[in-house]
Write a structure and sequence with these properties.
Layout (H helix, E strand, L loop, with lengths): L7 H4 L46 H12 L6 E5 L6 H9 L5 E6 L10 H11 L11 H13 L5 E8 L2 H4 L10 E6 L9 E4 L5 H15 L9 H7 L4 H13 L5 H14 L9 H13 L2 H10 L6 E3 H8 L3 H13 L4 E2 L4 E3 L2 H14 L4 H16 L3 H6 L1 H10 L2 H14 L6 H17 L3 H17 L3 H17 L3 H17 L3 H18 L2 H17 L3 H18 L2 H17 L3 H18 L2 H17 L3 H18 L2 H14 L4
Parallel strand pairs: 1-4, 1-5, 2-3, 3-4
Antiparallel strand pairs: 6-8, 7-8
Length: 667
């Protein structure tokens, strides 16, 4: 790359966040507008746990192993079979032997709220290290980014789409090319996928009997089962789900003989007149017997767990539902796991099998006299927990929080949405948080909660602007501004003016951006809010850089740095340091640019801000290329390129790749 290729005019656009412009620069917008969070780790080993007593299925496992390791491009393998037959267990067992990374998702295809393809793509992109703000809103664009990120991976990835109900639910998740593999489980034969089909039926009689014996041995190695185990397996329809519950009944009660359990199952089956599961009354009989043999506190916990709308329930949420301390709730969940009525879903968390959730809902409707009070306690738990939550907790509980907001009464929906924003600005799954804010906004208006309405308008405007939907962002900002002024809410008005300034800067209307930022700054000064003053001054410094008013930019950046220091915001100071380094580049102070950029880089790395890291690396590469330290420039730009690729920012990555090519040698 020649010296004149990186001019001051080019470098001026590199402000730490955004995309690459047509010049030789990574366009950033401005640092303070960036919502930064810890570096999202890759999540390519998220398979759920499997039963220790897994037995049989050797032929099915061999078929899957052959398909998943074949050098031929066997892209999709589908495992089909009726509910409870063990499709997920088989798929997870096969996937655990896959040599590359694994992406896993339960599509909940037969539930009341199946996972939509766009949501599944967002889950996978986040697992692949793409931050939420880089996940497109458009489903087609999201699918393109997903395939592009996978295409850049050297190692093969296995995509496990569990519990799909249709080919349409799976098709957008298929990667391009033949390097990666897909494993789908469904109750249907998804012929439209042209998949290698593995049909899973109930277990053969001998394997069904061995599953019962193995499950009991796992719990009680000394227990020897005498009696008609084969008859018990037959009564359970040789269905693994029912077999596991029968084994749990035997393991938990040493005085219960196999003959006694056979008689109990047979009698219960004869009494049942409800709709059978999987064409077999004995499956429901196994559920009912296990439920009735639980202690009453465990029965109550089982049926109340069905009131949690998400796929998983934490011990803390279970404690809220049952109205007991967390330690007691953990003991209740342990009892339900021993009885195979719930499945483990990670530390302190459980989930239902689809059929058992249906059964739990029926038990709740039949046996629980008061369902409203437990649900209200659950809402209170989520609101209070969100108010003190970390971003990681919000990420784990996302599906529960989104679903609860939709089911909550008006006030609770508002409380929860406001609490989410107060505790941590949502940095992943923008589509979910947008729907949450919109739902809560309607509720706030309905309940005349005008202050919360204004808070939600500001947050929704910022969220939409992050996605570069400028017309919608303008409409929301102007609506928020009118509401703040109508209620004489100066702080909210200043935030709305700042967001409008961000919008104007993004659209390169510099005069308007300047007027808006100055108005916001004056209001924050009057209000004594130094942190927001720092944010606006940092924005003003970026604006002055765009206008090539470098002296004023320096003044604004230094004021912002001083205020960030006063409020103890080290991360905010790092954003200013990065912008000061960029300013030094533009004014030809290469030594200053290097020193300031390295200071910012150290902080960005410490707090896990990969985007800030990448932008500073770009500046460091420019500074070193300017003094002919080509190998060092290549090192910095190579790392920056890799980070951009990890973010899914292919445009920025391609520009840095071009600079590397112009350096010559190996990039």
């Amino acid at each position: 790359m020649a010296d004149h290729d990186v001019s001051a005019a080019d470098v001026v656009n590199n402000d730490i966040s955004g995309t690459v412009t047509a010049g030789t620069v990574v366009q950033a917008g401005h640092v303070a507008h960036l919502h930064v969070r810890p570096d999202p780790p890759l999540a390519l080993a998220g398979l759920p746990p499997t039963e220790a007593a897994f037995t049989g299925r050797a032929q099915d496992l061999a078929k899957l192993a052959e398909a998943l390791t074949s050098p031929r491009p066997v892209l999709v393998t589908a495992v089909a079979g009726l509910a409870g037959v063990g499709k997920t267990t088989l798929a997870v067992r096969a996937a655990s032997r896959f040599a590359g990374g694994v992406l896993f998702i339960d599509l909940r295809g037969y539930s009341d709220s199946p996972v939509q393809p766009a949501e599944a793509l967002s889950v996978f992109l986040h697992a692949l290290g793409v931050p939420g703000e880089h996940v497109p809103a458009d489903p087609a664009a999201r699918a393109n980014l997903y395939r592009s990120v996978l295409a850049d991976r050297a190692e093969p990835v296995l995509v496990v789409a569990d519990n799909a109900s249709s080919a349409d639910q799976v098709r957008p998740l298929l990667p391009g090319g033949g390097k990666h593999r897909v494993l789908v489980t469904s109750r249907e034969v998804l012929g439209e996928l042209s998949a290698h089909q593995v049909r899973v039926d109930v277990l053969p009689p001998a394997e069904a009997e061995e599953l019962i014996r193995a499950a009991v041995r796992t719990r009680d190695p000394e227990r020897v089962l005498d009696g008609p185990v084969a008859e018990l397996a037959a009564l359970c329809g040789h269905l693994p789900l029912a077999l596991g519950i029968a084994a749990a009944l035997l393991a938990e009660d040493v005085d219960l003989s196999v003959r006694d359990l056979v008689d109990l199952v047979a009698n219960a089956t004869n009494r049942l007149d409800e709709l059978e599961y999987a064409g077999n009354y004995a499956v429901r009989a196994a559920f009912e017997l296990s439920y009735q043999r639980l202690r009453e506190p465990e029965r109550r916990a089982f049926r109340l767990l069905s009131l949690n709308p998400g796929a998983q329930t934490s011990a803390e949420a279970a404690a809220a539902l049952v109205g007991e301390p967390v330690d007691k709730a953990k003991r209740l969940l342990a009892g339900l796991k021993r009885a195979h009525m719930v499945e483990p879903a990670g530390p302190g968390r459980v989930r239902f099998h689809d059929l058992l959730r249906i059964f739990a809902e029926e038990c709740c409707a039949r046996d629980e006299p008061d369902r409203r009070s437990p649900f209200e306690r659950l809402l209170d738990h989520y609101v209070s927990a969100a108010r003190a939550a970390s971003p990681s907790w919000i990420g784990v509980e996302r599906t529960n929080l989104v679903a609860v907001v939709e089911l909550a009464d008006d006030d609770r929906a508002v409380d929860l949405a406001v609490a989410i924003g107060d505790s941590s600005a949502p940095t992943t799954r923008w589509d979910d948080w947008e729907s949450t804010y919109r739902h809560a906004l309607v509720a706030a208006e309905r309940r005349n909660r005008w202050r919360d309405e204004r808070v939600l308008l500001n947050r929704l405007a910022m969220l939409v602007l992050e996605q570069r939907r400028f017309d919608e962002a303008r409409e929301l900002c102007e609506r928020a501004l009118a509401r703040h002024r109508g209620f004489r809410d100066k702080h909210g008005e200043a935030i709305a003016l700042n967001t409008l300034g961000d919008l104007a800067l993004d659209l390169r209307d510099f005069d308007l951006a300047g007027r808006l930022y100055v108005s916001a700054a004056h209001m924050f000064i009057e209000l004594g809010d130094r942190r927001w003053q720092a944010i606006v001054y940092n924005h003003l410094g970026t604006l002055r850089c765009w206008q090539r008013e470098f002296g004023m930019a320096q003044v604004h950046f230094m004021a912002a740095r001083q205020m960030y220091r006063r409020v103890g915001d080290v991360h905010g100071e790092a954003r200013v340091l990065a912008n000061l380094g960029n300013l030094a580049l533009q004014t030809g102070d290469l030594a200053g640019a290097r020193a300031l950029s390295l200071q910012g880089l150290e902080i960005f790395r410490a707090v896990g801000d990969r985007l800030g890291t990448a932008k500073v690396l770009v500046n460091l590469g420019i500074a070193h290329e300017r003094v002919r330290l080509v190998e060092k420039a290549r090192e910095y730009w190579g790392e920056a390129r890799d980070v951009f690729r990890g973010f899914g920012d292919s445009e920025s990555a391609s520009h840095v790749e071009r600079w590397l090519a112009e350096l010559g040698g190996h990039g």
